[in-house]
Design goal:
Elements: H1 56-67, H2 90-96, H3 99-102, H4 114-131, E1 135-137, H5 143-160, E2 168-172, H6 178-185, E3 189-193, H7 203-209, E4 214-220, H8 232-241, E5 245-250, H9 262-265, E6 269-272, H10 274-277, E7 292-294, E8 306-311, E9 320-324, H11 340-376, E10 392-395, H12 406-415, E11 422-423, E12 432-435, H13 443-462, H14 464-469, H15 481-486
Parallel strand pairs: 2-3, 2-4, 4-5, 5-6
Antiparallel strand pairs: 1-7, 6-7, 8-9, 10-12, 11-12
Helix pairs in contact: 2-11, 4-11, 5-6, 11-13
Length: 501
């Protein structure tokens, strides 16, 4: 085990940019106007505009220094379970910034956007092939938005058949939290299905709820325990026999690329998270991308429009791409046709890897997760301890260290230079630590992470105050997160007399 030697860092009190201000300093000098000056209405003018006065170098150094306080995937390991925070290859950014893509406007004549439409069409074809489905929409802005669209499609399918008594959606207790939210937003009744002792859907509980009021079931597979449901085909059969549809939460597709197709398992609808599986940056507010794929019988209900070939290749001319509306569409769900920059990044990522490379992604993600699980299971209790997929869930608590919680483990990890894993999710694991290494981390990084986790497990028993006081080596110590969420301060500083000006 690595011999960690920690020294407490000095507390950093960074002045605000207003406090750095000095009267008369300026970062830019504007030339005299070459048009006559206009008289502005006095009643609309403030006597003083409370902006800081700084030179250019002051501003640059201030914000560069602040940026070093941030943790990013370019600077360190993100073991955030369920989030799939893997490294984003820079070639994705290069292609997204090509002028022909970056400078397009969605209202241009369609003849001038053929390159972009061809890219979107090819991405649609690849995403259908990877999942085994027949039709797709790229519109949804993120995973939860994709879930909402998928549920709307399922609901529209039943209503089109005049099967209006179907108002119930089944959600396993190991699902992503957005699943019940999107079902409820669609006006459906949500019924939770428990997990069995191996982390699978409880089949008896499922059979008890599978009746003629069933819209369907939303199943995250692999689930949020990081486990592939061993009975997934039987789950799909039970739901289908009751007349329901199976929704696949594809947020964890990073474990299945090139290995299993969700449509072949029995699913009818699924969303992708391009910003997870296909390496387009996410976090900090987005943007994300959540395309939805469906079987042929559901294609007519997808949001409009969808990119299609409107004129086939002929006489040596390339095909003409355009936008078409499904016959019974649920309507538009996003301005224009979604987050185009995310499509370019995902297209680049898939094209660079190819079929074999996509399978490698999942195989290494699963290998990395099981390596961590094997090395940590003796120090941390793993309630569903079997071969995992791309992530696993341990407990951040010990019977012989009752005052230690998962939050303490997470905060202490920051002292060792690692971003904490996901805490307190899924809810069916007490004091959950949800760990996902992704395929982009090498063995050296994983070993260093394990060493830190083992050291923290030892400290939990021998020096619990180290965990309670952590972090102590970060620019800021432990914050009151509840207070911060309830009492937002959106403006850090203004002159005291601002309100009188």
């Amino acid at each position: 085990m690595t011999d960690f030697k920690l020294t407490e860092a000095p507390k950093i009190v960074e002045p605000t940019i207003y406090e750095l201000s000095s009267p008369g300093r300026t970062g830019v000098t504007y030339p005299d106007p070459d048009v006559p000056r206009a008289k502005l209405p006095d009643e609309l003018l403030r006597k003083v505009i409370p902006l800081p006065e700084l030179s250019e170098v002051d501003v640059i150094r201030h914000f560069v220094k602040l940026s070093t306080f941030n943790y990013s995937v370019d600077s360190g390991f993100y073991p955030l379970g369920s989030c799939t925070m893997k490294y984003n290859p820079k070639i994705n950014e290069d292609t997204a910034r090509l002028p022909g893509f970056a400078n397009l406007h969605p209202l241009q004549p369609i003849e001038t956007t053929q390159g972009a439409l061809m890219l979107m069409y090819q991405l649609q074809e690849w995403l259908k092939e990877i999942s085994g489905f027949d039709a797709i929409t790229l519109q949804p802005a993120a995973g939860a938005h994709g879930e909402f669209v998928g549920v709307l499609v399922m609901r529209a399918y039943h209503r089109d058949r005049n099967d209006n008594k179907r108002t119930k959606m089944l959600i396993p207790d190991s699902a992503h939290g957005t699943n019940p939210a999107t079902s409820a937003m669609s006006g459906l009744k949500v019924v939770q299905i428990p997990s069995d002792e191996r982390g699978n859907v409880d089949l008896e509980a499922l059979r008890a709820e599978a009746d003629d009021t069933l819209v369907g079931m939303m199943l995250t597979n692999p689930n949020t325990l990081g486990l592939f449901d061993e009975n997934v085909e039987e789950v799909c059969r039970i739901v289908h026999e009751a007349g329901g549809l199976m929704y696949g939460d594809g947020a964890n597709m990073n474990a299945l690329l090139g290995i299993a197709k969700m449509a072949d398992l029995g699913f009818d609808v699924m969303h992708y998270n391009l910003h997870k599986t296909f390496s387009t940056p996410h976090g900090g507010g987005g943007p994300g991308s959540g395309p939805v794929v469906v079987t042929a019988e559901l294609a007519q209900f997808l949001p409009a429009p969808i990119v299609a070939v409107v004129e086939e290749e002929a006489d040596g001319l390339p095909p003409l791409y355009g936008l078409v509306d499904p016959s019974k569409t649920v309507g538009r769900v996003k301005a224009f046709n979604g987050h185009f920059g995310m499509f370019v990044r995902a297209f680049t990522y898939i094209a660079m890897h190819g079929p074999d490379g996509l399978r490698d992604i999942s195989e290494y993600a699963v290998l990395n997760a099981n390596y961590l699980l094997t090395r940590l299971r003796d120090a941390y209790h793993v309630p569903y301890d079997r071969i995992c997929m791309h992530e696993f869930v341990a407990e951040g608590r010990w019977k012989d260290a009752p005052d230690i919680h998962a939050l303490d483990v997470a905060k202490r990890l920051m002292d060792y230079g690692f971003h904490p894993p996901t805490n307190y999710f899924p809810l069916i694991v007490h004091e959950a630590l949800m760990i996902e290494p992704t395929e982009t981390e090498n063995k050296g990084t994983l070993d260093a992470f394990v060493d830190a986790m083992l050291k923290i497990a030892d400290e939990a028993h021998t020096s619990p105050n180290l965990l309670h006081e952590a972090p102590t080596r970060t620019p800021f110590g432990r914050l009151d997160e509840v207070k911060a969420a309830k009492e937002l301060i959106l403006c850090c500083w203004l002159p005291e007399d601002y309100g009188n000006q």
